[in-house]
Amino acid sequence: MSDHETRAAAMDDAAVDTFLREQGTGVLSLADGNEAYAVPVSFGYETGRALFGFYTFGEASMKQQFAEHTDRACLTVYDVDEQTDWKSVLAFGPLTELGQESWGDIGELISDNAWTPDLSGVGTRRLSITGYELEIEEVTGLQGDSA
């Protein structure tokens, strides 16, 4: 294998599950017709689902607009230490807005592995948070293979 050749190995379900539990950030890809929108997110995770809080500043939210029109979302989570030491997981499924009554049940899960940004610099803008759940119907994972 040359210095620039990268090999990959499939991750089994247990490795994917562990990786998603250890991570707290990723990129959520949404679509509205032929327009795509990808947004960095922090997430809570338990087997079969990922949970998000969408921060909204003011009245309009592109995340919420695209989420309403997305039939199947994709959460991309990755970690790279070096060329042969990396992991990447793609999780696909429908995205559902959660009501306020759900926050008590999922708040701890989000707190366990989600990262929360410091929004103190936002100032006096109106800020609201809407909860979403990605029901993971399909997941794939690859990792660097130095063998």
TrEMBL record:
Q: Which domain of life is it from?
A: Archaea
Q: Which InterPro entries match?
A: Pyridox_Oxase-rel, Split_barrel_FMN-bd
Q: Which Pfam families match?
A: Pyridox_ox_2
> What name has this protein been given in UniProt?
Pyridoxamine 5'-phosphate oxidase family protein
Instruction: Please give the organism.
Output: Halosegnis rubeus
